[in-house]
Design goal:
This protein is an alpha/beta fold. It has 5 helices and 4 strands, in the order E-H-E-H-E-H-E-H-H.
């Protein structure tokens, strides 16, 4: 028998959990599907509707500031970020995607609250559609599962 202690999260929340979902409105035809998948998954795992807050901001570049502000309130057990950055013919994609991912990671590190990165960064609209509920599953649902697991994990630490 091993003396190693293993701590890991689960997909079961035994306590009430408040979760904020930050949605970028740019590429809303994709983000709306991510949001639906996210909410459905949270509800199926026992998160009550009254414990969910959705905050909409202009786009992916603005997501980190909103996520950081929400995490810093101490009101939420996790913040999920949802957006879609689709590569175009200019370097704009690289700047927005990079700033968003770095900002979301910093928000989590600075606040100690799980801030989940559910922002698609794709090379084409087709790839985004695949990840928003068709061939590649729904990355909004995946982000919800990550948030649940992180809440459960951090409650044990």
């Amino acid at each position: 028998m091993s003396a190693i202690k293993i701590i890991e999260g689960s997909l079961v929340l035994r306590e009430k959990s408040r979760i904020a979902i930050v949605c970028g409105r740019f590429n809303g035809f994709i983000v709306d599907h991510l949001e639906s998948g996210c909410i459905d998954t949270l509800k199926r795992h026992g998160v009550a509707e009254e414990d969910l807050t959705i905050v909409r901001c202009p786009g992916a570049f603005e997501i980190p500031l909103v996520a950081r502000r929400l995490a810093a309130t101490g009101t939420y057990d996790a913040v999920i970020t949802l957006g879609a950055v689709i590569r175009g013919s200019t370097p704009h994609f690289d700047h927005v995607a990079g700033a968003c991912s770095r900002g979301v990671a910093a928000a989590a590190a600075d606040t100690g609250v799980p801030v989940v990165f559910g922002v698609l960064t794709t090379d084409s609209i087709e790839q985004a559609v695949e990840r928003a509920g068709t061939k590649a599953g729904n990355k909004g649902a995946d982000a919800a599962l990550t948030a649940i697991e992180m809440i459960a994990l951090l409650r044990q630490i």
